[in-house]
Amino acid sequence: MAFFGLFSKDKKATLDKGLEKSKESVLSKISRAIVGKSTIDDEVLDNLEEALITSDVGVETTLRIIERIEQRVARDKYMNTAELHNILCEETAALLQENNMQDVSDFADPLPAKPYVIMVVGVNGVGKTTTIGKLAYQYKQAGKKVYLGAADTFRAAAVEQLCIWGERVGVPVVKQQMGSDPASVAFDTLQSAVANDADVVIIDTAGRLHNKVNLMNELTKIRNVMQKVVTDAPHDVMLVLDGSTGQNAFEQAKQFTKATKVTSLAVTKLDGTAKGGVVIGISDQFKIPVRYIGLGEQMQDLQVFNRDEFVKSLLGNV
User: Fold this and answer.
1) Is pLDDT at 318 greater than 60 in this prediction?
2) pLDDT tens-place string over residues 78-104
3) Coil, strand, or helix at residue 102?
4) Is 144 in the same domain as 70?
5) What are the Cα distances from residue 95, in Å, to 70, 85, 101, 265, 307?
6) Confidence class of residue 191 from pLDDT cuts 50, 70 and 90?
7) CB of 247 within 8 A of CB of 203?
8) Are the beta carbons of 239 and 198 closer than 8 angstroms?
9) Distances from the Cα of 129 to the Cαs of 95, 202, 310, in angstroms?
10) Is 109 inside any structural domain?
C-alpha cells in the first residue's frame, strides 16, 4: 500500500521518540549478547534469545525469531555479529508479515462501511477512553464525521471522561444515566449516527475484569442490538492493551479473545516504558492486527501501526 512508502519524517520522529526507552533497553541487551564475538554462533544466539525474552517479546515469538536467524546463518554461512542487527530486523519484520497479513490504512483512506462501527473493549486503566478520544480526533482531522457512544455505564468517570474528549475533539457523545443498559446506549448512538450521516461510530464498553461468561454475554448483547440498526456492526472489535504492563498485556489479550471475537489491537503507553517488545509478541501470537500504537499524551500521538517502521525503530542500529 502507498501508505507504507509514505511514512513521514514527523511520524518517524514520533515513533523513534516514543520507543526510545524500549530501544535503549533492548539494544543494550543485544550488545551484551554479542560482546567479544565476531561470528554468530550458538552462544550468541542463546544470549540473543535471553535478550529478547527479557525485553517482553515473549518466549514463543522469541523462539520463532531465533529459529529464523539460525536458518539464515546456516544458509549464508559465517555471518558476523556486525550483521546481527540487520538480520534481526529483517527476520522479525518478515515473521510479522507472515502472521499478520492485514495492512492498515491511513485515517484519511475510504472506510469499508458507512457508518464504520468500532466497538472498543479492554480493562480499566489501559487507556481505552483516551484511545477513543484520540481516534475520534484523527478521524475528524481526516475529514470524517464521528459519533461516540458512552456504553460504559457502570463507571461515572468513564462517561464523564468520554464527554470531555468529545468536547475537546468537537464530536457528539451519546450517553444515558449511570447504570443504564449498555446495549441501549449503543443502539441510540447508532440511530443518531445514521440519522446524521456519520462516517465513524466508536462505542466505549465497560472495562471490568468480570468473568468471561458475563463479558461474553454483555458484548454479544451490544453487538446484537447494534445490528438492528446497522446489520453488519460492529465492523471492528478493538482491544486496547497497556504496553507498559508487559506480560500482563498477553494475559488480558488471552482473556478477551476467549470472551469475544477481537479483530484489532491498540497498544498504548509505549512512550513511558522499556517494554515495547510486547507489541511484537502480541502481534505474532494472537494473529490479530495491531492497528494503532500510543506514543504520547497528545491527541496526534496515536499512530497507525507500521510493522516495518516499528521494527526498525525498536531493533535497528543506532
Assistant:
1) no
2) 677 778 888 898 999 888 887 654 545
3) coil
4) no
5) 14, 15, 10, 18, 10
6) very high
7) no
8) no
9) 31, 10, 24
10) no
Cell reading at 80: 558476523
Q: What is the H or E stretch that residue 121 is in?
A: strand 116-121
The cell for 139 is 478521524
Parent domain of 193: 116-310
Q: Which residues pair with 139 in a beta bridge?
A: none
For 19, counting Cβ atoms within 10 Å of its Cβ (0-12 exposed, 13-18 middle, 19+ buried), the class is buried
**How many angstroms separate the CA atoms of 243 and 269, rounded?**
6
Q: Where are the alpha helices (DSSP H) in 77-207?
A: 84-99, 128-141, 156-169, 182-195
Tell me what the mean pLDDT of segment 287-291 comes to: 88
In a domain, 202, yes or no: yes
- Cα end-to-end span (Å), the chain: 27
- pLDDT of 1 > 70? The answer is no
Measured over the CA atoms of residue 271, residue 274, residue 276 and residue 278, the dihedral's sign is negative
